[in-house]
Amino acid sequence: MIRAVRRSLFALSLTGLVALFLRFQGENKATTPHQGGWRELSGPDLR
Amino acid sequence: MRIIVHGVGATGSRAARQLVSSEHVESLLLIDNDLAAAESVAVSLGEPAATACLDGLRTETRVQRFREKCDDADVVVLTASDDHVELARAALECGAHVVSVSDEMDTVEDLRKLHDLASERHLSLVLGAGFAPGLACLLARHAANGLDVVDEIHIAKFGTGGPACARQHHRALRSDGLDWRNGQWERKRGGTGRELCWFPDPVGGLDCFQAALPEPLLLQPAFPGLVRCTSKVAATRRDMSTKWLPMLRKPHPEGMIGAVRVDVRGWSGTIRNSVIFGALDRPAVAAGAVASVAAKFAVEERFDRTGAGGLAELLADPVPALQLLADRGVRAAVFEGIESSF
Fold first, then answer.
1. B23 touches chain A (CB under 8 A)
2. Phi then psi for B296, rounded to 5 degrees?
């Protein structure tokens, strides 16, 4: 009984670790600008 | 210019107001199932606005009555979803240009089938002439003109216009969308693919999702070298959790502020480049302005070709249209970013 509980806890924690890895994998790999600001298009931009 | 506007909801009434203030308007006929609503808009617009109602249980009856109305029309602006394709066909057969503001994928696909009919008659059939698509298509073309090669376009939008637009937003989230990837269409389940997209301030960052949106259908033919084209819509947790249900309460008469973001990526010489344009406005107001500009361009034969197409297809140089929109208060913005160090 204790062994089954231990195994299920181990399986759950392993699943959690894999989920955490997948969740944060790929962060900060953006190719587009992430800082800066918006500027209204005006005269020279509309030529 | 003799104009018919079908549907006087949030977008149709704005389009009518923009059109009636244009030069050389001989007549403006407002058609709606709700004649009292049409009459109230006509009274507020004054001369030369008039009203009509296509009363009839059968589509054939309504289309026949519409044909009688549009015999001498120069342009028809379709803003209501009822009988959209049938009325577009009837208008083209009567010799009128057609401007559609529909953002339903099926409607856009069906309207594109009328390309040959419009081309034969040297008429324009403008697809998706609203806020997004519409203004988004103009901004995509403008951004693309600043690059040597364009291979990716990503659209994101936030906000809804009137009640019909809110219902369509609800339907779109639970329906499959289409993305253009590596030379073929990929079906994407609605409500998946969450992405944080940044819109012009004060909207800021919002979670956007896949949905049944027509932008890729309109942009892919305009940019044959595209490798990827996607479109996403902002949705709240409540939108996502209730998308499977019928709308639980009546939609609002008009949405608040909306925004669109157009991210065009490609090459400037040997340098990888990205141009991001955005716009912030009430979606119905902006859609009405875009529809009126499209109608004006169609009648004045200022499009590059006749037949069916989105604004990015019909205008190689969108600057005159964007200038006209800016004069009408619909202003776009460019994101001037600092390259990420990651």
1. no
2. -60, -45
Cα–chain center distance at B16: 16
Residue B234: how many other CB atoms lie within 10 Å: 22
pLDDT-derived band at B28 (thresholds 50, 70, 90) equals very high
Percent of chain B with pLDDT over 70: 98
Q: Is B278–A41 a contact, with Cβ atoms under 8 angstroms apart?
A: no
Which positions in chain B touch A45 (Cβ < 8 Å)?
Answer: 334
First to last CA, chain A: 77
B274 and A CB contact within 8 Å: yes
Per-residue model confidence as pLDDT tens digits over B12-24: 999 999 999 888 8
> Helix B319-327 vs helix B283-299: angle between axes, to the nearest 10 degrees?
130
Residue-wise pLDDT tens digits, B135-164? 999 999 999 999 999 999 999 999 998 898
Residue type, B91: A
d(C-alpha A47, C-alpha A45), whole Å: 6
| Band (B226; pLDDT cuts 50, 70, 90) | very high
Are B337 and A36 an interchain contact pair (Cβ–Cβ within 8 Å)? yes
Interface of A with B in 1-20 (CB under 8 A): none
